[in-house]
Amino acid sequence: MTTTTRQATQETAAASARGLTKTYGQGDAQVHALRGIDLDLPRGRFAAIMGPSGSGKSTLMHCLAGLDQATGGTVTVAGTDLGSLDDDALTIFRREHVGFVFQSFNLLPMLTAGENIMLPLELGGRRVDDAMRERAHLLADILGVADRLGHRPAELSGGQQQRVAIARALITQPDLLFADEPTGNLDSATSAEVLDHLRRSARELGQTVVMVTHERDAAAYADYVVTMQDGRIV
């Protein structure tokens, strides 16, 4: 790939990494979690990063999401070099540009599903207008929980809670949605439903989704798969 082509690819990608390294510890105890990663994540696609435990997939996600600082190399998200941001600016950037879905649904038990979905807007000080309410209902409809918006998490199944968590992550229209083992606490049938909804988020909403998983069946739902081993893309 020529320099010009590489630059063009980075500019059109939702996120890019160049020469990314991450090292933990010192001396004999040093662990090289990432070993020179080059990666471009296209906009509006569903990508899976997979590999066995210790392969570096979660470390890569944390660096791409701005949750962890790389030892070397660069990470660019939505045209911004994350290494150029201080802690406060990075916190604001994550809030405005990145969404997260984890194994544990992390819904607030005292709020309804609808209130949980709207929570990121309120925490970010954004005005909740009719357009945002309409988007929340659209997301709930696409994710199959439109009839559960008035229910609290304890009244929802595990799959419904995860779908509410996905809607909550999507309400701010993030440049990147990271899903870290999102089906780890779900049975196989419910996992298939959640993975299908993540795929629909990319295909119907144009959302860039990056899922970390060690399961081949889960990765099969993605548009493409990045496989890692020993801190490298293989």
- Low-confidence parts lasting 5 or more residues at pLDDT below 50? 2-8
CATH superfamily: P-loop containing nucleotide triphosphate hydrolases
Helix content: 25-40%
Instruction: State the major sheet.
Output: 6 strands, mixed
Query: Would you tell me the overall average pLDDT?
Result: 90
Question: Could you give the distance between the termini?
Answer: 18 Å
Shape: globular
Number of helical regions: 8
Kindly state the number of beta strands.
10
Which CATH-level-2 architecture?
3-Layer(aba) Sandwich
How large a portion of the residues is in β-strands, by DSSP E? 25-35%
Structural class: alpha/beta
The CATH class name reads Alpha Beta
Strand order of the largest sheet: 6-7-8-3-9-10
When the domains are counted, the total is: 1
Radius of gyration: 18 Å
CATH fold call: Rossmann fold
SSE string: HEEEHEEHEHHHEHEHEE
